[in-house]
Specification:
Helices cover about 45% and strands about 15% of the residues. By secondary structure, it is α/β, with parallel strands linked by helices. Helix 1 crosses helix 2 and helix 11 crosses helix 12. The N and C termini lie far apart (about 65 Å).
Length: about 350
């Protein structure tokens, strides 16, 4: 059996500090109107007694829960296998921790989970939501809007409304893709293929558009659809080699897919970069540095994107100029750069 240890109460803190219970309540709940000397006495008493505020009672006063939901519209098998999500969650977690707020992770295995997530958000458990990896036919944006929860999206939204209706953070997917293909053209490659990501996501569509911006009229045989996974990259590369065995360069929609591309080229006896140059997207470390050869890729700052999403949401919750640093825009697009290594 364990002995029950009583927790210090608000009254005990008031007695130790020599102030009223109401004064202690205002201090620990972030209220105004308490003189600085009294604030210091209360804080000293809180520290000495080890007092921990009751979160439920505090929420009644502040209307805040100090918790943010992170909603990833992917099954857990994808989330925990793809380092992209780990990088983004790390950035979000760092920013929320700096603001003494908790991260609540919500995943969607399938359509049945959407209503569950919407009910949770509408139930008043969190102050806001950070949502990413949405697909074009995903009902989550509408459900979240109906829940009335302040939200920042990861990735450019495109679900039937104007971009200006949603606050979001993204990287320059189209511009990064253009620079990747220009790099391949600068190497003298003339039969450049593209392996897309999942085309029901705006990032994949934007990267395909960037590819088209540079190559002009695209031979359909030089475009194969992937899904942002290594197996998808393998499948698409095999299709390309069957349709266009003379391909001399491949721009791949992300680094994970590039892993599969490199594996298939190696099995086919194609040397990289001598026979086929390969360039990815993300600069997912340590993956990009540990491939053979090391992967030339387009770098986006995934962790910073996560931090910025959380920062924008918190700024809005704290009464800033909305959730966007620039009230004239609803979206923030971060720059990308080509990182040259051995594969191209």
């Amino acid at each position: 059996m364990t002995e029950t240890v009583s927790r210090p109460t608000l009254e005990a803190v008031a007695a130790r500090a020599g102030v009223s219970r109401a004064t202690v309540s205002r201090v620990v709940n972030g209220g105004d109107g308490v003189r600085e000397p009294l604030v210091e006495r209360v804080r000293r008493a809180v520290e000495e007694l080890g007092y921990v505020p009751n979160q439920a009672a505090r929420s009644l006063v502040t209307r805040r829960h100090d918790a943010v939901a992170v909603v990833i519209a992917e099954p857990e098998t994808r989330v925990f296998a793809d380092p992209f999500f780990a990088h983004q969650l790390r950035g979000i977690s760092k920013e929320l921790t700096a603001h003494d707020s908790q991260l609540v992770l919500l995943l969607t295995e399938g359509r049945d989970d959407h209503a569950r997530v919407a009910r949770y958000l509408a139930g008043g458990h969190v102050d806001g939501a950070l949502v990413f990896s949405l697909h074009l036919d995903d009902p989550l944006p509408g459900l979240i809007h109906g829940a009335g929860v302040p939200t920042v999206f990861g990735g450019r939204p495109d679900w039937g409304g104007s971009d200006r209706e949603s606050v979001y953070v993204d990287c320059d997917n189209r511009g990064g893709a253009r620079e990747a293909v220009r790099h391949l053209v600068g190497l003298g490659r003339t039969r450049i293929a593209h392996i897309t990501g999942a085309l029901d996501q705006t990032s994949a569509v934007d990267r395909l558009d960037g590819f088209r911006d540079v190559v002009g009229e695209v031979d359909p045989a030089l475009v194969a659809e992937g899904d942002f996974t290594p197996s998808g990259g393998e499948r698409a590369m095999r299709e390309l080699l069957e349709r266009r065995p003379d391909v001399d360069a491949v721009f791949v929609a992300n680094d994970l897919s590039a892993l599969g591309v490199l594996r298939v080229l190696r099995e086919a006896g194609r040397r990289v970069p001598e026979d086929v140059a390969v360039i990815g997207f993300d600069d997912m470390l340590p993956i990009a540095e540990q491939t053979d050869p090391p992967l030339t890729t387009v770098r986006q700052d995934i962790e910073e994107m996560g931090r910025l999403m959380a920062r924008m949401l918190i700024r809005g919750l704290e009464g800033g100029t909305g959730t966007d640093p620039d009230p004239e825009r609803s979206g923030v697009v971060l720059p990308t750069t080509v990182v040259v290594r051995g594969s191209a």
